[in-house]
Amino acid sequence: MSENKNLNLTLEEFDPADIEKGKTMAGLAYILFFLPLIVCPDSSFGKFHANQGLLLLITSVAGTVILSVIPVIGWILLPIFTLAILALAILGLVNGLQGKVKRLPLIGKFNLIK
After folding, report:
1. Which of 21, 42, 91, 110 makes the best surface tag, with the fewest CB within 10 Å?
2. pTM
3. Which segments cross the bilayer (predicted)?
4. Domain limits of the chain?
């Protein structure tokens, strides 16, 4: 039951002071996912965005490797995949900087950092 609760996080479940204090680190989590974990390790808001940033990193590395080894079709799809990853990174960065708690589409439902 608690895992299901973590999948449906809302803004009300985070401390407003934590959100206000961690906005910058949450946004930067999409560039360096571990930054909020180092700078504000007790921030649940920072951990949420660090998790989303880590998911984005894993997806981008795995997708790039897979598409790179597939001849022709993979090479054609790789730039499209890269643009999709860039769009997700920008979406996450904006959400983090604005203090929003929104999961990334398609990949954001997993929790790797607790």
Report:
1. 42
2. 0.84
3. 24-41, 53-70, 76-97
4. 2-97
